[in-house]
């Protein structure tokens, strides 16, 4: 073989090698997430009592979809509903009652709402129950500092119904805008007792103790969830709702003490 053909063969081999080493299109190297969700931040507005369960739910969705960042804002359902009605950029709303969801549905500000959990009330007291508070009437005892949720908050409405059913009238030292604030006041010693959800007692075993009052099973809070209308992340929002309603999501809720819807 002459030198010229040999040189051509060498050049051809080099060309093939360079072609094999050439960078591919960046899009071809990006692996889709588990459900095909693109990078985005999902904003979930949820009742304060859902904190532990929804923190886990957010982590689950992020694990299945690494490109998605789930940001959950917790507060009283009435506060969150007011913010959504005013145009807050929420993608999902999970309320602790249907009362605060319904006005948003009536104004077409949310899609179809689905019940996903239930909850009942407990009397929350300091660890060890030093004042020996055993029933609802004890909350009205002289010298007992009792705090409740405000009437417009789901736990406040449920508390009013429970006290009314028991024929107990009391003047709380304060009315809080969410159930977390009631827990905080009792845990810090600012109050002696209050009415919170069973799930709040379960979530704070070292901070408060719980007493089950008579009639608690007759006052059940039902939690609805919906995608907010006009969400810029509607697919991811629906994926979060689907997760909450799925067997995996329901198992998380049950582990945190929530009742089936």
Short note summarizing the structure:
Keywords: Metal-binding, Molybdenum, Signal. The protein has 261 residues and is of the alpha/beta class.
Rg calculated over all Cα atoms: 27 Å
Number of strands: 10
- Tell me, briefly, the overall form: elongated
What percentage of residues falls in helices of 4 or more residues?
A: 25-40%
Unreliable residue runs? 1-34
Q: What percentage of amino acids are in beta strands? A: 15-25%
Q: Which class do the helix and strand fractions yield?
A: alpha/beta
Q: Look at the structure and name the CATH superfamily of the largest domain.
A: Periplasmic binding protein-like II
Count up the helices. Answer: 10
Order of helices and strands: HHEHEHEHEEEHEHEHEEHH
- What would the CATH topology of the largest domain be? D-Maltodextrin-Binding Protein, domain 2
Straight-line N-to-C gap:
84 Å
Quickly give the CATH architecture of the largest domain: 3-Layer(aba) Sandwich
Strand order of the largest sheet: 2-1-3-10-4
Count of all domains: 2
How would you state the average pLDDT, rounded? 89
- CATH class of the largest domain, please? Alpha Beta
Give a short account of the largest sheet.
5 strands, mixed
Keywords: Metal-binding, Molybdenum, Signal
Binding site for molybdate: 49, 77, 179, 197
GO biological process, one term: molybdate ion transport
Family: Belongs to the bacterial solute-binding protein ModA family.
